[in-house]
Amino acid sequence: MKRILKQRITRTILLAGTSFIICSAGSEPVYAQEITTVSAASQTADRSEEVVVIGTRRTDRTLTNSASPVDVISSADLQTQPSANILDSLKNIVPSFFVAQNTIADASSFVRSPSLRGLPGDEVLVMLNGKRYNRSALVQVYSGGDTGLSYGAQAADLSAIPAIAINNLQVLRDGATAQYGSDAIAGVLNYGLRRDAGFELQGRWGQYYKNDGDSRQVAGDVGVKLGERGFINVAAEYNDDLGTSRGKTRPTAATFATLNPSLADQIPNYPGPAQIWGSSPTHGYKILGNAGFDVTPDSELYAVLNIARSHTDQSFNYRPPITVPGLVIDDGTTTTTTTNGRNGSYNPVYLTPCPTGNPTCPTGGFLANGQTFSAANLYPAGFTPRFVGVTKQAYGTVGYKGKFENGLTYDLSGSLSRNVLSLSMYGSLSPSYGPATQTSFEFGDLIQKEANANLDLTYPLEVGFASPITLSGGAEYRRETYKATTGDEQSYAAGPFATSVPLYTETSPGSGVFTQTGTSSAQSPAASGYGGTSPQAAGSWSQKSWGLYGGAETDITQTLTVGIAGRHEHYSNFGNADVGKINAIWKATPWFSLRGTVGTGFHAPSPGQSHVSILTTNFISGNQVQTGTYPVDNPIAQYYGAKPLKPEKSTNFGVGTVLTPTSGASLAIDYYNIKVKNRIFISQPFAVSAADVAANPGLAAVGVGGNVSYFTNGLDTRTQGVDVVGSYRTPLAGGSLNMTLAYNYNKSTVLSTDPNVISTAQIINIKHLAPNHRGNVSAAWSSGGFTFNVRENYWGWWVNAVDYPTVKDAAGNTTVGQKFGAKWTTDLDISYTFAEHYTLTLGASNLFDTYPTKIRASTYNPIYALTNSTADGQVYPRNGGPFGINGGFYYVRLRVKF
Q1: Could you tell me the pTM of the whole model?
Q2: How far apart are CA 100 and CA 880, in angstroms?
Q3: What pLDDT shows up at residue 1?
Q4: Residues 6+ apart with CB under 8 A from 409
Q5: Smallest Cα–Cα separation from 613: which of 450, 483, 419, 431?
């Protein structure tokens, strides 16, 4: 109680101080700060005349006269964030950007898929210097709330981009498929890269308040001018982040340690939790080069190269070796007891076959004579597999652009990219292989390759308007290939003990007469924890597309700007798509503008979404369930009703206002409405019965009691909301004060779906997994060499009904999921620059060590008295919620710049 009171008092002092600063600043600020600069960071430059390069083909658009809402995030805004992953930086800065922490989430812990405005990551187009960035090799198939908003999506892996390489990030919060092609339904992220000369080096060390999660990062940037005609800029980052743990050990592990003290130290991670709920240890590097050279005074040859690699080592679920009865639980209504069973791999397999030719012990039978094998031979205290993901990214663009004397501009470019996710595991076994089992496995590679070619043209046409009509047009060709390579045989196959067999016992020693005394337990196929890619699921699939676009933009008068764009694309696998967009901004007064957009868009299914096949082990309410996710062309998916995928289609409109009442105060309010038809998703799980396996033998890999899901165009949704962004800038106490406010309200509604395909729990998560309300207010004051930054973040309440149902109807459909309460977090940092070139920063993220609401006891997630956690050791929500479960983080950074 004292700790909470202290936090509230300190937070009140900080906010009161901020309010005092506003009131004492005076009514005539002398600096301007454009509304769409979301962060307050330590920038002192006026951004009101920052040129916008996204959402328009003109070269004279600025933040104040853009017809579409654009956020410009500076390099300092990104670099001052205490995270090596740019996903977490954007989550802190942009309220409508959401990404989960993902603790034990299979491959989704290696590549986290974000969401913008409540829509999946592959409905957000990512660009480097205005050129399309490639997708990750991972299709998000993990079935928990960790991927709820991007379930089934295949998005770009933003974590491969080093923050120090970025000059600014422009976030177009508007549909732009007509301008840039498939995927730009929710908006566009365009990373503008540095081209300055000089040298910069940064080093950061940090740690969580719980004394874990040590984080080390080194980043550098070198820029060189090539005389007066060109430049080369190379940036690199290296990070090494240790893991965190915010759960408890499993009740079965705690009991095993008590009953078997001599074996306790063989429990994984002992004396800590047997399985880890937290951030996984990760390390890696990322390099980005940007270069340009003026071939003539009016033309430039340019190139971009991005290479990255990361290695993540994730804890899986603990496999207990014993059955524990009498565990006391709270199910939300009463206190009772329950039994937790041992893992199936601890059931013995019998090794001695029946004697050849013995009529009382026929072929196929085994002797129950004590000659057995089980996981206990390898892991007597249980085991927790470790799942390893290595991502490798390579992206390159070369182009030539210029301008003719008549005003015609051209930009011809080509891009090649390759993203690889290599999956492996150690500390496990393949139960159906008995004593011949491996303990480590290679699951194969997932590979995404893309080739793009673009031609962009513009021409200024004078017709007597306030500005020339900027005519634009161009063409694009794309080839996209998805490949899955075969894993180790034991990683996917069923071994000799995958089926139950009759067991026989000799009636008397030496008699040679046997009687059947039972049957053995069938062992699960594939590796325990994850299934490798089988030869049947391996392969390579490609998709080609070409597109043509055209547009026009002009200032009809000094106060009215309009734009129109249209695009036609043809896909080798899906046919044609035609989309368009109209936008306008009217400057009603020098300080008040109205803007609006109307458009249509599309997202074509990727080859990965159409062909990926994954087998994994999920734990539902603590119980192990083998789960297969299959593409629509797989006979298993078709058995459960899968149909060919179709492109998603969208219709969006938005209206907004821009107010600049003084030179240093501004406010923008934008409403948006996005309807998506045929949204690509993954179905709810279908339980596999013995009859199903008999009807479709391919289901043996999943097994009786397992689950099957498949890709589907299962939803029509409408997402609408409001973005509010404001800023205020003024001199104060001999320095400069910059304050910003950013708020987002977002709500998604499912308009139609097939209840036999999409579950009610999934629908609840689409509506409420990300908070409907999210905002932050920040202040940055700088004077001389000192800079002081404080940001208060608001995270509204949210619901995870897939992982934490609390009420189900008679048919077993979830009607209510646990509601996790709204929270406030505070970020603070202080910097001092000395000797002109050196800056030392001390800071804290989540200053008051705030955590999400704990998991509440329910029938479906009871809390165990022994550990005060769920059956699998969870205390906090597994996806981390909107700001994570790690708590407070403090850090120190040293920056050197020449």
Answers
A1: 0.91
A2: 6
A3: 44
A4: 401, 402, 403, 456, 457, 458, 459
A5: 483
- Cα-based distances in Å from 830 to 93, 135, 790, 792: 18, 37, 9, 15
Considering only 13-27, 359-373, 680-694, 803-817, which range has the smallest mean pLDDT?
A: 13-27
Query: What is the enclosing helix (H) or strand (E) of 649?
Result: strand 648-662
Percent of the chain residues past pLDDT 70, beyond the cut: 92
Alpha carbon distance 520, 352 (integer Å): 12
271 preceded by cis ω (within 30°)? yes
As a residue count, the chain comes to 898
Among residues 734, 730, 728, 666, the alpha carbon closest in space to that of 26 is found at 730
Closest CA to 147 of 89, 85, 187, 102: 102
Using CA atoms, how far apart are residues 503 and 870, in angstroms rounded to an integer?
Answer: 37
Query: How many Å apart are CA 312 and CA 645, to the nearest integer?
Result: 32
Q: What is the DSSP string of 778-791?
A: EEEEEETTEEEEEE
User: Do 392 and 419 touch, CB atoms closer than 8 A?
Assistant: yes
Instruction: Count Cβ atoms within 10 A of the Cβ of residue 296 and give its class: 0-12 exposed, 13-18 middle, 19 or more buried.
Output: exposed
**Sheet with 119-120, side-by-side order of all strands:** 97-98, 115-116, 119-120
Backbone dihedral region of 868: left (phi > 0), alpha (psi from -120 to 50 degrees) or beta? left
Cα separation of 616 and 491, whole Å?
11
Whether 66 has a pLDDT exceeding 90, the answer reads no
3-state secondary structure 20-69: HHHHHCCCCCCCCCCCCCCCCCCCCCCCCCCECCCCCCCCCCEHHHCCCC
**How far is it, in rounded angstroms, from Cα 87 to Cα 81?**
11
pLDDT tens readout for residues 149-166: 899 999 999 999 999 999
Q: Does position 535 have pLDDT exceeding 90, yes or no?
A: yes
Helix residue ranges per DSSP H, 433-584: 489-492
Tens digits of residue pLDDT in 537-554: 999 999 999 999 999 999
Query: b or e along 676-697 (b: 16 or more beta carbons within 10 Å of the residue's beta carbon)?
Result: bbbbbbbbbbbebeeebbeebe
pLDDT computed for residue 59 by the predictor: 61
Terminal alpha carbon distance of the chain: 49
Rounded-to-integer distance, Cα 878 and Cα 455, Å: 45
The two beta strands, 665-682 and 648-662, are: antiparallel
What distance in Å separates the CA atoms of residue 40 and residue 34, rounded to the nearest whole number? 11
Q: Is 879 helix (H, G, I), strand (E, B) or coil?
A: coil
Quote the CA–CA distance of 784 and 748 in Å, as a whole number.
47
Q: How many CB atoms lie within 10 A of CB 62?
A: 15
Of the candidates 232, 238, 185, 289, the residue with the CA atom closest to the CA atom of residue 679: 185
β-pairing, 623-630 with 707-732?
Answer: parallel
Burial of 532 (0-12, 13-18, 19+ CB in 10 A): buried
Nearest residue to 297 (alpha-carbon basis) of 228, 242, 240: 228
Residue carrying the six token digits 């991502």: 391
| CA 300 distance to own-chain centroid | 36
Beta bridge partners of 193: 166
Q: pLDDT tens digits, residue range 692-703?
A: 888 888 888 888
Q: Going along 427-529, which residue ranges are E strands? A: 440-461, 469-484, 502-506, 514-519
Give the dihedral of Cα atoms 99, 103, 104, 108; nearest 10 deg: 30
Q: Give the residue ranges of DSSP H helices in 502-633.
A: 607-611
Place of tokens 């077993």: 812
Q: What are phi and psi of 552, to 5 degrees?
A: -150, 140
